[in-house]
Amino acid sequence: MTASTTGVPRVGSLPAGPLDSIADVAGVTVGHCTLADGAVQTGVTVIRPHGGDPYRDKVPAAATVLNGFGKSIGLVQVDELGVLETPLALTNTFSVGAVAQAQIRAAVAANPEIGRALPTVNALVFECNDGYLNDIQRMAVEGSHYEAALAGAGHDVAQGAVGAGRGMSAFGVKGGIGTASRLAGGYRVGALVLANFGTPESLTVAGRLAGPELVQRLAQPDTAAQPEKGSIIMILATDAPLDARQLRRLSLRAGAGLARTGSVFGHGSGDIAVAFSSAYTVPHDTARPMPAVAMLHETHLDPLFRAAADSVEQAILHALWHAAPVQGRDGHGRRALLDVMPELGQTA
C-alpha cells in the first residue's frame, strides 16, 4: 500500500491533468514489478510510450545529462537518432544488464529478424543505486521482472516504494517513484521520477527550506553534512508536436524542477532527464512515409518549459509523500518523510 497524497503541497499555478501523472499524456502507460523480501528491496519500472511496438513505430525523444555519475544504457543512440525504440526501463545500478537483455528479447520476440535482416535494437535502461536498503550484490532482478512490469503497464500509476523505487532514498528518508502532470499551451506534459538523491539539510518543499529541521529530527550522524551521492532519473512525456531538438530543450527544464527541491546536481549524483513526444511516430520500415507534422513554433515553448519544471518538482514531492518506510539489508532502514515531519502534510 502507498500513502495518501493528502496535504501534499501544490506546485505552481498550472492545472494538472485528470490523473496528475505521466499517464495523462495520450498512450503513455506505466508498470511496476516490486521485489520486497528481507535484504532484497528493489524492482523494475517500465514506461510504455504507446500501446504498439516502439521498434516499428518509434517516438521522437532526447535526453539531458545534468550530471553524468550514472550507468544508464542506450543514451548514445538516443542522442544521435532522436528516437526511442523500446519502452523506458528503470531499475537499480547492477540490474541494468539483465533488464537490457530482457528488453532485447522482447523486441526480438515481436520482430524475429532483429539482428539479422533487421537492424539491432537500442535497449534503454536507467538506474539509481539502491544499495543502502537493497542487497544490490545479489543482482536479484531478472528478465521475468521486466516482463511482469511491461505486462502490467496501465494508467493507474502506483507511487512511492514500488517498482524501481522500492529501495531508493531521498534527503535521508524514503524516496522512490513519483509522477505528476501539468496542462499548458493546449498540451499536456507529464513527469515520472525515480528519486534517489538529495542531502537532508537541503530539502526544500514548495519553496520552504525544511532541511535543517529534518536533520534535527533524523538525529543520525550519517545523514548530516554528507555530500550528495544519490541520483534521479526524470522522464518527461508530452503530446505537443516537438522534434528531437525541441525535446532536448524540454528535458533540460527538468533540472529547474529538480533544483527547486534542493539539489545542486552534486559530484556523486547521476541526474538524467529524458523527454519524448506522443504526438507522432517515426516508422522503422523505410517503405512507409515519414509523418508530415507541423512542429510547435519555438516562441510557444515557454508554457511547456514551465510545465516540465513544475511537474518534475511535483513528482518529487509525490514520491516523498507516497513513500512508506522500508527496512532492508543489514538492519538499514529509511523512514517516511511524513513520519519524521508530519506537519508537512498539513501545509497544502
UniProtKB/TrEMBL annotation:
InterPro entries: ArgJ-like_dom_sf, Peptidase_S58_DmpA
Keyword Hydrolase annotated: yes
Enzyme class, first EC level, given as a word: hydrolase
Highest taxon, organism lineage: Bacteria
Molecular function per GO: aminopeptidase activity
Keyword Hydrolase: yes
Gene3D superfamilies: L-amino peptidase D-ALA esterase/amidase (3.60.70.12)
Keyword line: Aminopeptidase, Hydrolase, Protease
Family (UniProt): Belongs to the peptidase S58 family.
SUPFAM superfamilies associated with the record: DmpA/ArgJ-like
E.C. number(s) listed in UniProt: 3.4.11.19
The protein, known as: D-Aminopeptidase
Species lineage: Bacteria, Pseudomonadati, Pseudomonadota, Betaproteobacteria, Burkholderiales
CDD domains according to UniProt: DmpA
Pfam family, one: Peptidase_S58
